[in-house]
Design goal:
Layout (H helix, E strand, L loop, with lengths): L16 E8 L15 H17 L3 H5 L7 E8 L8 E9 L5 E10 L4 E10 L13 H11 L4
Antiparallel strand pairs: 1-3, 2-5, 3-4, 4-5
């Protein structure tokens, strides 16, 4: 199955930033049918998202320490095939370019053969200490985006 396109790139946008992390389904993540409970997919996506943000200095604490929170605005998951215990998977997260002060991530979970098991996306906004939605990117994130656009990341 082909990876769904959740975010379309505009001409001149830099390519998405990507990370892939290994994962195995644990016993405590299974439902009574012996497959990963659907609510766990969000945490698997989040693990990859956190790893990508931390790798590039744009994780939760990087924003928080500058007085900004990045709550979810949207979250979506598509379940293509069930995840089962002790099989090897990889969870991929990709951060897509956006001109606005927001974070657009898409995700996919693949098995050891590269078969698409699940996919999804999230959109996070940037909120200041007064609970106002930021329209402009904060300075540190603007610098990060400049480096990204120029291929320095």
């Amino acid at each position: 199955m082909k990876h769904p396109v959740y975010f379309k790139a505009a001409p001149g946008d830099p390519p998405p930033l990507t990370i892939s992390i290994p994962r195995r389904a644990r016993f405590d993540e299974l439902d009574p049918l012996n497959i990963v409970w659907h609510g766990r997919y969000a945490s698997w996506f989040e693990e990859a998202r956190v790893a990508l943000g931390d790798r590039h200095g744009i994780g939760y604490l990087d924003f928080f320490n500058r007085g900004i929170t990045i709550p979810l605005k949207k979250f979506h998951a598509d379940f293509h095939r069930p995840l089962t215990m002790n099989r090897a998977y990889r969870v991929e997260a990709r951060l897509h370019w956006h001109e606005a002060a927001r974070l657009d991530y898409d995700f996919r979970i693949l098995d050891a053969d590269g078969e698409l098991m699940s996919s999804g996306y999230s959109v996070q906004l940037m909120i200041d200490r007064a609970q106002g939605v930021l329209v402009a990117k904060p300075e540190f994130f603007e610098e990060f985006c400049r480096q990204w656009r120029h291929g320095e990341i």
